[in-house]
């Protein structure tokens, strides 16, 4: 259907009150233009007849025939005649049903006069230029672009073409020449080739040998002050020196005057000394043909010429569309440089040639461009990128290939002596003049030498990006060359990420619980829920390997929610077994905690599992606590309102600010296992653990030590004033079943 986003008065969808579908064949109105609508969507029939039903073209009304499938259309076409236009859906019972029907109309029924306009709601099924040529399709539109005005324009143009064809049937030979010329033109790709073909066919049709040229508005991607001027795109021998020049370069002022007059009046001019044919087309490229001969044509010749010009206009529209799609496919609209796809083609050509032996590929990333874009606006950002592209192009353009492959990333490939960090970074020492402002930029670079490279262009680009990311991690404004070890490392991370996702989806992740103990009484206070991953072959992947991957990929958000819910379900189950004072601690990662829906996720988990919030504790790392203290304070306040308690995990490793720590609404500090391991028999060791205990006491916070492995560490911690602990000395992390058995074997709950 036609998109409803167009203004109401310029759209095929105007109302929803059609009570019944149009009949397959309405009564033929006397002296009307007969239009056949073939579409499997009844709404398209209704919208089309509504849009066109009240119109008159050439003082004659329109009447409609309707078919809702290709087979139904065949049956109608075998009995009905005098059909001027067929509005045909490309995709019906099958993806190529429309083109098969066109083939049947043209070749089996021999209906060559009827004008066929293809319509489709699926641009991906657009017919190739060969199909348009072979099947004599007169126009092609997507339904989303075919507004009421454009539909009326297309139908009017088609009816005029049909009327002209009918009027000059007596001159069949001339008509066949026009059609043959148009068909040959349809096979030509590119504006210049198409224009050359038009010049050739005009001379052939008219039986003359006139000198002349064709001019059009080129609209090149590369910005230029003369970009929208009329340029000569094809010429006969006498004007060949003017190719690619603006029409102001033409020596004969009379030629410029008559072309200007034709454009101003919007029509062709048949003068005594010269002829200008103006081809009207939707692309509005002002495609104009100038002949240095005055043509004295009879009415039949003019009609033939009008038919030819009409067909040329349709062909020109297709050529312009094809050229535009080609540009969008291979070139960046903003800078005019090659895009990623064009770069890959270039890379593959270089790698397959001797040039590979001394070539380097570089990726150039503008540092902190996003901040500049946000602060100064996207228009300024676009100007800045264009300025960078111009500087790179001016310096490297003649000898290297340059492309824009990301929002603020450029690619450069060429000789190793030219494409080197020193040459590239030197271009960023001077400020860029953007919109009368001087902007100082820096860039970070990743490079790869292609002489010993075994992969294709796509792999080379990926590996250069690995080097770029490594450079950005180590030092902004610097560079890194790709090494094989980088590739192995990143590929292992990617493989691990995919394996982790599969493990989560196939429930190969599980939760274990490490008990937390009161050192003085030996009483079980609760447990910490810990995530574990065991592969199909029974191998355990350490958490310090897969947790960072989960955070980097964003998978930690879903995994973290599952761990939270699992822990809450287990807490409720233990309370049902009589452990009513049992507290469950759950780790929360930075990515998970900063997710905008975290509070909603936490609240829903508590509601769904019926877990009592006062017995749920969230553990956040010290580095998280210091990253954005003000945001953290606000979030912690909301968490505490739910009744959940907060613990700072791995305390002592994050160099936290005590002033910020005092502002946090937290309940407990956890001493990192590294400081517990430092506790030795002599009193001088373990002083950091002692300081953390004292700090907790001064702030009124509970303190728990993790990683307690022997009695001496437990006794020492108790002497410091730390009464809570967890570690292998008491119990290793246990599965649900093992935890239940362990609890049952304790002297008391």
Structure description:
The protein has 749 residues and is an alpha/beta fold. The protein has 26 helices and 27 strands. The strands form five sheets. It has an eight-stranded mixed barrel with strand order 19-20-22-23-24-25-26-27, surrounded by six helices. Strand 15 and strand 16 form a beta hairpin. Helix 10 packs across helix 14.
Describe the secondary structure blueprint for this structure.
Layout: E1 33-38, H1 42-52, E2 56-57, E3 60-67, H2 70-79, E4 83-89, H3 97-108, E5 115-120, H4 129-134, E6 139-142, H5 148-167, H6 172-186, H7 191-206, E7 212-217, E8 230-235, H8 253-265, E9 269-270, E10 275-279, E11 287-291, H9 299-330, H10 340-351, E12 359-366, H11 369-376, H12 378-396, E13 401-404, E14 409-415, H13 421-426, E15 432-434, E16 437-439, E17 443-449, H14 457-474, E18 479-481, H15 484-505, E19 509-518, E20 524-534, E21 540-541, H16 543-553, H17 556-576, E22 583-587, H18 590-594, H19 598-609, E23 616-621, H20 622-627, H21 629-641, E24 645-651, H22 658-663, E25 668-671, H23 673-677, H24 687-699, E26 702-706, H25 711-720, E27 724-726, H26 736-744
Parallel strand pairs: 1-3, 1-4, 4-5, 5-6, 17-18, 20-22, 22-23, 23-24, 24-25, 25-26, 26-27
Antiparallel strand pairs: 2-3, 7-8, 7-11, 9-10, 10-11, 12-14, 12-17, 13-14, 15-16, 19-20, 19-27, 20-21
């Amino acid at each position: 259907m036609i998109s409803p986003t167009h203004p109401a008065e310029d759209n095929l969808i105007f109302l929803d009150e059609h009570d019944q579908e149009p009949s397959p064949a309405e009564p033929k109105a006397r002296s009307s233009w007969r239009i056949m609508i073939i579409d499997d969507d009844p709404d398209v029939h209704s919208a089309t007849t509504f849009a066109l039903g009240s119109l008159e073209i050439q003082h004659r009304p329109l009447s409609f025939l309707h078919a809702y499938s290709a087979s139904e259309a065949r049956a109608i076409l075998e009995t009905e005649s005098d059909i001027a236009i067929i509005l045909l859906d490309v995709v019906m019972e099958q993806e190529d049903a429309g083109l098969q029907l066109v083939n049947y109309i043209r070749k089996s029924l021999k209906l060559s006069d009827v004008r066929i306009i293809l319509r489709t709601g699926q641009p991906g099924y657009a017919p190739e230029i060969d199909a348009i040529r072979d099947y004599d399709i007169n126009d092609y539109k997507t339904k989303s672009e075919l507004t009421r005005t454009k539909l009326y324009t297309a139908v009017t143009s088609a009816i005029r073409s049909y009327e002209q064809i009918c009027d000059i049937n007596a001159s069949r030979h001339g008509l066949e020449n026009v059609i043959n010329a148009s068909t040959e033109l349809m096979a030509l790709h590119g504006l210049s080739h198409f224009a050359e073909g038009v010049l050739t066919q005009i001379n052939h049709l008219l039986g003359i040998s006139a000198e002349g040229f064709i001019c059009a508005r080129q609209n090149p991607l590369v910005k230029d002050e003369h970009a929208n001027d009329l340029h000569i795109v094809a010429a006969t021998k006498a004007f060949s020196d003017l190719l690619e020049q603006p029409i102001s370069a033409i020596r004969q002022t009379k030629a410029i005057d008559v072309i200007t007059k034709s454009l101003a009046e919007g029509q062709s001019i048949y003068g005594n000394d010269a002829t200008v044919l103006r081809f009207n087309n939707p692309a509005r490229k002002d495609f104009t043909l100038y002949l240095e001969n005055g043509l004295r044509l009879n009415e039949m010749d003019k009609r033939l010429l009008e038919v030819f010009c009409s067909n040329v206009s349709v062909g020109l529209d297709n050529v312009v569309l094809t050229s535009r799609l080609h540009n969008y496919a291979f070139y960046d609209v903003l800078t005019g440089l090659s895009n990623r796809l064009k770069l890959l083609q270039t890379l593959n050509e270089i790698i397959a040639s001797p040039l590979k032996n001394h070539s380097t590929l570089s990726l150039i990333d503008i540092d902190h461009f996003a901040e500049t874009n946000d602060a100064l606006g996207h228009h300024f950002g676009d100007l800045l990128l264009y300025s960078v592209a111009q500087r790179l192009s001016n310096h490297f353009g003649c000898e290297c290939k340059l492309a824009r492959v990301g929002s603020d990333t450029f690619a450069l490939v060429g000789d190793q002596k030219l494409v080197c960090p020193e040459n590239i970074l030197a271009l960023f020492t001077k400020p860029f003049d953007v919109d009368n402002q001087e902007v100082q930029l820096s860039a970070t670079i990743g490079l790869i030498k292609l002489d010993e490279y075994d992969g294709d262009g796509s792999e080379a680009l990926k590996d250069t990006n690995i080097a770029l990311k490594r450079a950005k991690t180590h030092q902004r404004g610097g560079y890194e060359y790709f090494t094989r070890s980088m590739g192995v490392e990143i590929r292992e991370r990617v493989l691990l990420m995919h394996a982790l996702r599969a493990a989560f989806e196939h429930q190969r992740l599980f939760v274990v619980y490490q008990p937390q103990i009161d050192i003085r009484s030996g009483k079980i206070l609760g447990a910490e829920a810990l995530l574990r991953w065991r592969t199909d072959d029974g191998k355990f992947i350490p958490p310090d390997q897969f947790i960072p991957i989960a955070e980097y990929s964003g998978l930690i958000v879903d995994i973290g929610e599952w761990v939270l819910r699992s822990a809450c379900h287990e807490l409720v189950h233990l309370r049902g077994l009589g452990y009513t004072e049992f507290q469950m601690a759950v780790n929360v990662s930075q990515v998970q905690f900063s997710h905008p829906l975290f509070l909603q996720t936490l609240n829903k988990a508590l509601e769904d599992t019926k877990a009592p919030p006062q017995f749920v504790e969230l553990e956040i790392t010290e580095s998280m606590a210091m990253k954005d203290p003000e945001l953290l304070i606000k979030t912690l306040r909301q968490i505490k309102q739910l009744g959940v308690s907060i613990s700072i995990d791995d305390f002592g490793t994050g160099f936290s600010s005590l002033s910020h720590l005092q502002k946090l609404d937290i309940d407990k500090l956890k001493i990192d296992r590294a400081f517990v391991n430092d506790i030795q028999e002599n009193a001088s060791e373990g002083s950091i653990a002692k300081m953390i205990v004292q700090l907790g006491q001064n702030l009124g916070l509970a303190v728990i030590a993790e990683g307690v492995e022997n009695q001496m560490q437990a006794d020492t911690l108790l002497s410091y004033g730390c009464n809570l602990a967890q570690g292998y000395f008491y119990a290793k992390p246990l599965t649900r079943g093992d935890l239940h058995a362990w609890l049952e074997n304790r002297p008391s709950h």
